[in-house]
């Protein structure tokens, strides 16, 4: 078990385990979007693909009632431990995205899912790469979240999702629209390629996902409201 590198105060310090996603630029961008969304006392928030529990704990500090879900046993364990250390009450479940969650139960769904395109046809079922790999087009989980989120949201409920432009921003907007959501891009930022993208840069360029001289990754926040 290790302590995550110092993060902006918005998320605080967290314990992590090998194979559990460590909060970084995408997490911080999503936390800021949550702050602006006005998450507050009395709201019910669902954190999907919670990882270390960083975003769920942030929602709890803002006053919300929080349910955090992850398919990884280690993620569930460390989220529960981080909630205990932070003295925050989270309902933490091990599950496959939003399967088995009650309909029309949440005001806000937040998610930082795996979204990095990789050579495999399917995301890995185990190992560290499970925290970021999402199939050949990076959409294995993003598409499922787009399809499932409306069912668990209350009327006028909001989905906040962060992902890379590499997996297709327009595709996400279209899919959410087809699912009955009013979707927009609320934030964009560019960051230098990290270790994962640098390691598979040749493959990404062969697929036409990255230009030959491109050195920055675009991250986006998708905000979608249930109509």
3D architecture notes:
The protein has helices at 25-37, 54-61, 73-86, 142-152, 169-178, 195-199, 201-206, and strands at 2-3, 15-16, 44-48, 65-70, 90-94, 106-111, 153-164, 181-192, 216-226. The chain is of the alpha/beta class and 227 residues long. The strands form two sheets. It has a seven-stranded mixed sheet, with helices on both faces. α1 packs parallel to α2 (54-61). The protein is globular and about 50 Å long. It starts with a strand and ends with a strand. The model is unreliable at 2-7 (pLDDT under 50).
Which strand order do you get reading across the main beta sheet? 5-4-3-6-7-9-8
Regions with little confidence, pLDDT below 50 for 5+ residues: 2-7
Would you report the number of β strands?
A: 9
Mean pLDDT: 92
Structural class: alpha/beta
Note the total helix count: 7
For the largest beta-sheet, the strand count, sense and barrel status come to: 7 strands, mixed
* Helix and strand element order: EEHEHEHEEHEHEHHE
Helix content: 25-40%
Shape: globular
Radius of gyration over all CA atoms, rounded: 16 Å
N-end to C-end Cα span: 43 Å
Strand percent estimate: 25-35%
């Amino acid at each position: 078990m290790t302590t995550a590198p110092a993060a902006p105060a918005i998320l605080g310090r967290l314990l992590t385990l090998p194979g559990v996603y460590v909060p970084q630029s995408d997490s911080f961008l999503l936390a800021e979007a949550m702050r602006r969304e006005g998450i507050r006392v009395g709201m019910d928030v669902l954190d999907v693909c919670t990882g270390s529990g960083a975003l769920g704990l942030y929602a709890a500090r803002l006053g919300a009632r929080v349910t955090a879900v992850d398919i990884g046993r280690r993620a569930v364990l460390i989220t529960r431990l981080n909630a205990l250390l932070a003295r925050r009450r989270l309902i933490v479940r091990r599950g496959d995205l939003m399967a088995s969650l009650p309909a029309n139960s949440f005001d806000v769904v937040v998610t930082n899912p795996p979204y990095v395109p990789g050579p495999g046809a399917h995301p890995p079922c185990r190992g560290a790469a499970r925290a970021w790999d999402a199939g050949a087009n990076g959409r294995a989980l993003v598409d499922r979240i787009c399809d499932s989120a409306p069912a668990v949201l209350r009327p006028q409920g909001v989905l906040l999702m962060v992902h890379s432009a590499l997996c297709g921003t327009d595709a996400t907007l279209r899919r959410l629209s087809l699912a009955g959501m009013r979707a927009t891009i609320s934030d964009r930022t560019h960051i230098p390629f990290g270790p994962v993208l640098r390691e598979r840069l040749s493959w990404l360029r062969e697929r036409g996902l990255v230009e030959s001289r491109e050195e920055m990754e675009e991250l986006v926040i998708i905000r979608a409201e249930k109509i």
